[in-house]
């Protein structure tokens, strides 16, 4: 994981930003600081205010309350065309009436760059995104992945200090998306550009980001590094939104933990932290660190490298995920099984 | 007021010039007219009572409704199967057929009306052919009766039925029909249970369009009908000519408007429930005016839909399922196309006649009627006047209309639909009514009998066409392209010039086309505001049609037939140039 340089100064700051649409607050009293060079992802379900947040930063939407600072200066009154940022739009927004080359030249032209210098830059970036032979094509003559790379190149070509990504990989198919995630990460490092990305795709967020903001109903639910966010979600919403979670609310048995359960919280266990074993199998060496319960398999789903069990312990449903390995017992619906987990893997999230 | 609120008000400002013209020439006089009909300031319904007390008035009223209903019904009966076959044709054939429907639609109404006189007249095409074949011994009375009115009006209205129908049918997913078949539906059941209900929005929008425009019809019934076939518009025009009794005229005008509004409401409501088009759910309201307004609003949308049909190229849908077209189907489509194109063809042939009268087929071939046109200063003068006015109208309304459409596009949907509805009034309402208010409006500016006055009157309708067409283009324009340009440091003006304008140019060209054709074919309003001192080409033609009918008008008409063809070609070229394609992309396309 790319480590945030915490000594870097703050590049973007939201101060108590509220955006009202009629009486509805799309963004509600949001405060946030992004450091220079950081890759920050805003993650949330649709309607959580993540896109509005990005549009506020881009200058396409004016805040109802609060202030946005870029490089320490307020930009609330600065129109988008005077802000220095590159944006990759969800649909790429490549100009359909201009060739790839003319699309790439556009931001340079608007900054008053001389034609000779423009051509040089365009060539350089075309090479960088492996589209040397496509400069004279029209956007409609490119594949989705190629269009995506042109959009990225167009956002980066003028070396803006800030890059905004709106669901950048949403329109690509799975394998292309994974490939572009790598590409994006390399480009981010190479250009050392402060990046704010909006997505609803948790894989994308976990892979790319230095930090992730999880939004819900216009507010920040939690902000943390990807690993922390996944491993130690603060709320039930975050736990369920990021990956799968077993929320153990009144499970019908005592939850053993090394910690005291804070009030107003529920216990949470990630499915991959639970082991499934035959009920009579011998105890493990570290069994004193573990809790085990007996349940019945309701269903088994085979998914390539994984096997997913739905198990009922009393009336509490459990999801268990197990990597397929040689010599592993396989259980079927109706089988009795023992579930066990490390006490230290139990998390408490606010309900 | 907060800054964002001010900003959101700004775009509407672009519509101010359009509304200034609309209000001055049409809106304010319209209100005065309404007050006059109510005997303001005394306010009474005496004028309306007087109207209905006269049997002749009521007869004309019912006749107007009857003719409009019959024409609409015939258009549905012919138009639906035609549109169906067009929509199921392979892409290239469909495009060609659409062009064949659009060309007569864009051809001058006067030309087409005149053509029917040539075809149906006592020595016209039909009678001569029948006489020649010995099937009849004396000419049949084919013209100056109700039948002729129907034939002429259906030919003129049919494209307005077919185009929205094709647009809707092409967008229907044919795999739905296949799905129905897979579930055991017979072909006819699959059609009636799946395809037909989905095509109803097109039927409705076409019917509304045809019906409401029929209500205001003037030229065709007056030229092809007998004395007993008067429509309300003709009736009002006669009232204006004989005695300019403002109160009576205003009353008739508002009764005509009232029927249009009521019929719109009934038609709109009747079909609204059955088609499952829940896009614009209409709140149940017992308050009639609200219903009426939303019905009219919907009508303006329908109107837009039919013009959107002209953007057929963008919407063409690859029909995967090429049906075996039987000979019967081909014959049907060919006869409809012949019916639509016949007037233009007849007019062109007629223009080369060597005869002195309206005899068809012509006894010989000559260019003498072209000569007679170009040698007669009253004809060439009228043509020049029309070109002059047409160019002025096109420039004015394209600029004003595009600004308005752009402004309205950036306004809240509610305000937008109300303002658009108002701007469309001059092409939605019967032209005789618009003409009378324009007359009143121009009177107060002292512009009666001036070219400026005529140009302003034409601009009312022309702006409406530009607004409709440019709005349709803007609706499919991706606003994120503008945001993208702005994020690359292009200011608002740069963004408009470099991104928006090049991409909506085909729409603007289309608007300009309609603006020019509207001005170049306008008779009713022009005759009211020209004050007899200015003679435009359509006025001169109309006079000729009514009085002498020598084949000079055929020469003029055949020149006018060329006009839409040339315009379509021009639009096609701009569209083609703006099309993303490497071979044709000029390096300076956006400069």
Overall description:
The complex is a heterodimer of chains A (351) and B (591). Chain A has 351 residues and is an alpha+beta fold. Chain A contains 8 helices and 18 strands. Chain A has helices at residues 50-58, 100-110, 115-128, 144-156, 174-191, 202-208, 226-231, 236-241; strands at 10-21, 24-35, 39-43, 65-70, 73-74, 85-88, 162-166, 194-199, 211-216, 219-224, 246-248, 265-269, 275-277, 290-303, 306-313, 316-323, 336-342, 347-350. Chain A has a 6-stranded mixed sheet with strand order 6-7-8-3-9-10, sandwiched between helices. Chain A has a 5-stranded antiparallel sheet with strand order 13-17-14-15-16, with no helix packed on it. In chain A, 38% of the residues are buried. The mean pLDDT of chain A is 90. Chain B is mostly helical and 591 residues long. Chain B folds into 2 domains: 13-36 and 368-578, Orthogonal Bundle (MetI-like fold); 54-366, Orthogonal Bundle (MetI-like fold), CATH 1.10.3720. Helix content of chain B is 75%, strand content 0%. Chain B is built from 26 helices and no strands. Chain B has helices spanning 3-9, 16-37, 46-53, 55-88, 91-106, 109-120, 125-132, 146-171, 174-182, 187-215, 219-224, 232-242, 246-272, 288-308, 312-315, 327-351, 368-375, 377-409, 413-428, 431-445, 451-475, 479-487, 492-520, 524-529, 537-546, 552-578. In chain B, helix 2 (16-37) packs across helix 13 (246-272), helix 2 (16-37) packs across helix 20 and helix 10 (187-215) packs across helix 14 (288-308). Chain B is globular and about 75 Å long. The A-B interface holds A 58-60, 62, 64, 77, 79-87, 89-91, 93-99, 102, 106-107, 110-111, 136-141, 154-155, 158, 164 and B 2-4, 7, 478, 480-481, 483-492, 494-495, 498-499, 502-503, 578, 580-582, 585, 587, 589-590.
